[in-house]
Structures are given as structure tokens and as C-alpha cells.
Write a structure and sequence with these properties.
The protein is of the alpha/beta class. The longest helix is centred in the middle third of the chain and has 17 residues.
Length: about 280
């Protein structure tokens, strides 16, 4: 059986973590200026807690990995494995995707490389990584696995609510005026990842209205496989129970999971941000 390696990045989140030991999973690591505090001794943390708002002159809070580190990871993987699957979060918001693309043109080795833009982030991206792992465990045909993954990409949908508009401004998705007015009016803007890019779709005044939007969004799909709720961190939205209850009553065969978002996603949409990932079955 061919030896396979999967490279992803730490924007990914997983709905389960029981990965097979015989498949190598490696990560390109982004660093963030802020993090969620999970230890009692805060002095041991390298980064600060997420503030509720960022200043207008705040520098980007996500640090791109060093190109040399990425190159070393790629070279060792391509040298030591037969097939290397690289599944990164959306290339429209991910500067590393183009870096990897350029580096692959200069690196030679024994491996066949399968580079895939997940056009997603967080649980959506993690789902594709998990799918790759499952397929590698049962299917030796790497080309078929790549084709299957590419067919799955357009069946993963992500919508995000970002009440902390200063984070979207810092990340370059809003201008200063939009950020200030939106937060002044206490708006809850809703975005989806359309073709991998942040696209505004609505703005409402209450969290309950956001949840109603999420439930209406779920109803647009005929063949649901999984719905995952991305909680603010720490989890604080009791309204998430409404999504779970709705699925249990109307889509009892659909897998529901709930996850606090990670440092990377919080650096884009703020610590109060939350979202929904909908995955439909792919035939």
C-alpha cells in the first residue's frame, strides 16, 4: 500500500479526532497575536486574550508562517511519501495557498502531490481532511481520492456572523467607516463563504434573528449529511440549542456537532463571532 501524507493548516477544526495511526497528518502553523486562555497562569501564555474590539490602527493579528518552514515541510513530505494531499483553507483568504503553489513548482521528490483548495475554513476544511483520511484507509487510488475530494468541495457551506466588525476591518474585509457604524448600531452582519471568499448576505439586530436565518438556511438543503454550529469562545449562545432542537425534530438522521471556534477563526470574525457549517451528501 502506498504511503500517504496529508498536509493541512491550523485553521482547520475537526468534528472527531480518532485519526488512523498509519496516516501522517502534518500542519502548517499560523500564529495569532491573541488567543483564548485555557490555563490558570496567564503569564505563561505567549499571546494576549482576545479583546472585544480592535483599534482602527491595529496591525493584522494573524501571522503568516515563514516560507522556509513551509518549504521544509513540503520537501520532507514529498521526499518520504508516495502521495501527499495538501488541503488548505480557502485560497481567497489564505496567503499560504499561493506560496505553496509556487514552492511546489521548485520541489522534486518521489511523491505525487494533490493540492486542494477547500474553499472553506474551520469545520468545513476539517471535514475534507477527515474525508481524505477515511478514503486513504480504504482506497489505494490517490487520483480517485483527489477527484472525490474536489467533488465534495462545493457541497460544504459556511455562514458566519461577525458582530465584532473591527476584526473584519483589521483582516481587510471592511473599511473603517463600515466597522465603526456597524458596531455603533450593534448590528449582527452575516457572511457566507461564496467560492471561498467572505460575501455579505444580510445584517440583523438580534442574535435570535441570526438563529432564525441559520434555520431558514438549513431548510434550503434537500440531502443533509452534517450540520456543525461554531460557537463563540467561550461558548455563550444558548440560542444554539434552537438549531439542535430544530434538526432533531426535522432532520433526525443528520449529524449535529457543536464546537467553540479556534484562534484563527476568532482572529477573522472576533471572539463573539459564531457560525454554521452545512455539509450535504455528495453522490
Amino acid at each position: 500500500m502506498a504511503q500517504c501524507c496529508i498536509i493541512t493548516d491550523n485553521a482547520a477544526q475537526f468534528s472527531r479526532v480518532n485519526f488512523p495511526d498509519n496516516i501522517c497528518l502534518r500542519f502548517i502553523e499560523y500564529k495569532t497575536e491573541y488567543s483564548f486562555v485555557n490555563v490558570k497562569d496567564k503569564s505563561k501564555l505567549d499571546s494576549k486574550e482576545f479583546p472585544e474590539h480592535l483599534g482602527l490602527d491595529q496591525k493584522p493579528v494573524i501571522q503568516k508562517p515563514d516560507d522556509k518552514e513551509i518549504q521544509e515541510l513540503l520537501e520532507t513530505s514529498i521526499k518520504n511519501f508516495d502521495d501527499v494531499f495538501i488541503i488548505l483553507h480557502s485560497g481567497k483568504i489564505n496567503p499560504v495557498f499561493s506560496t505553496v503553489t509556487n514552492l511546489l513548482g521548485k520541489i522534486r521528490g518521489r511523491a505525487a502531490v494533490h493540492l486542494i483548495d477547500s474553499q472553506s475554513i474551520s469545520i468545513g476544511q476539517g471535514y475534507l481532511v477527515q474525508s481524505a483520511i477515511e478514503q486513504i484507509s480504504t482506497n489505494p487510488d490517490a487520483s480517485q481520492i483527489e477527484q472525490n475530494l474536489r467533488e465534495q468541495v462545493p457541497h460544504v457551506y459556511t455562514i458566519l456572523c461577525a458582530p465584532g466588525l473591527s476584526y473584519l476591518h483589521t483582516a481587510g474585509y471592511l473599511d473603517a467607516g463600515q466597522s465603526l457604524v456597524g458596531e455603533m448600531l450593534s448590528l449582527y452582519p452575516i457572511f457566507n463563504l461564496e467560492d471561498g471568499n467572505f460575501t455579505p448576505v444580510d445584517k440583523v439586530k438580534t442574535i435570535h434573528s441570526v438563529i432564525e436565518y441559520f434555520i431558514e438556511y438549513i431548510d434550503e438543503f434537500d440531502d443533509l449529511l452534517q450540520v456543525s454550529f461554531l460557537q463563540s469562545t467561550p461558548p455563550s449562545l444558548q440560542e444554539a440549542k434552537l438549531v439542535k432542537q430544530y434538526l432533531e425534530e426535522n432532520y433526525p438522521d443528520t449529524l449535529y456537532t457543536e464546537h467553540p471556534h479556534n484562534n484563527y477563526l476568532a482572529s477573522l470574525i472576533g471572539p463573539r463571532g459564531f457560525g454554521l457549517v452545512v455539509i450535504e451528501k455528495c453522490n
